[in-house]
Amino acid sequence: MRIWIGWSRQLGTVVAAGVFTALMTGCNPQELWESQTVGTNARVGDVLVRNLHLAATEAAYRPGGGAMAYFALYNEARQPDALISARSEQAQRVLLRWDRACDGEAEVVDRIPLIPQGSVPVGPGQLPGGGTPYSLEIDGFKQVVRPGTTFPITLTFEQAGEVTVEAKVQPTRVGDEPPPAACPAGTSTPQPPVEGTPPPPMDGPEHDAGKEITVTGIVRAGQQPDCRLLTGEEDGRHYVLIDGDPAIVRPGATVVVRGRLEPDVPTHCAHGAVLRVINAIPR
After folding, report:
1. Does this model's pTM top 0.90?
2. Strand pairing of 161-171 and 176-177?
3. DSSP collapsed to 3 states, 199-266
């Protein structure tokens, strides 16, 4: 099973070693990511942390802003373990996110489990060659974080203990392209309808192309670095936000968004209805 971690180069140079064969094949994970990695490797107890890095950025991350961090985990122990928390002295909080159902929705979780002599359990529909369906959401930088530097993240495991890793902050370069998603649209396992349950109403966002709406909610980062997601506080619907001032429409911010529904616009965020931001104000 091949899992790309981080960013790849179009010109054929693989920056991340990117072959997490130990996840499914039992190959020695210590042989992975020893060179050409975009992230930082570490070990705590029987747990290997591989390729920890912040999403590539062209400009510096600003105080109060946020970012996603990506990595891979492997448990060498014969007993299960779990990542139970993450923190940084240079951020207000660090959240664990895991798309356990592989439905494109990376929920905030209080633990990310690790199977014995393996990695995180594979979700239904997870594709070989995709990225890892778990990540860290860093919220509220306390100082400027520039590309080309590192950012300290402390990971705490249930059995293995605690380790602080200097995650690399990669600069965006010409030719970069994001890795394939772990759970792209349409890969989740369909659930059969329950007998007697009426069909969903046909008045959702997907049937309102061009309609302008106003929604309020907290902006979240998706699995891909350029994905900004929002769940409406009133309607409970999921939206993929495109356009808008990135200083306002940023992960962790509560915003009031006026936008136009564009369900025909393709997106790799695999989350909800596409909403093109016309105006956004912080709440």
Report:
1. no
2. unpaired
3. CCCCCCHHHCCCCEEEEEEEEEECCCCCCEEEECCCCCCEEEEECCCCCCCCCCCEEEEEEEECCCCC
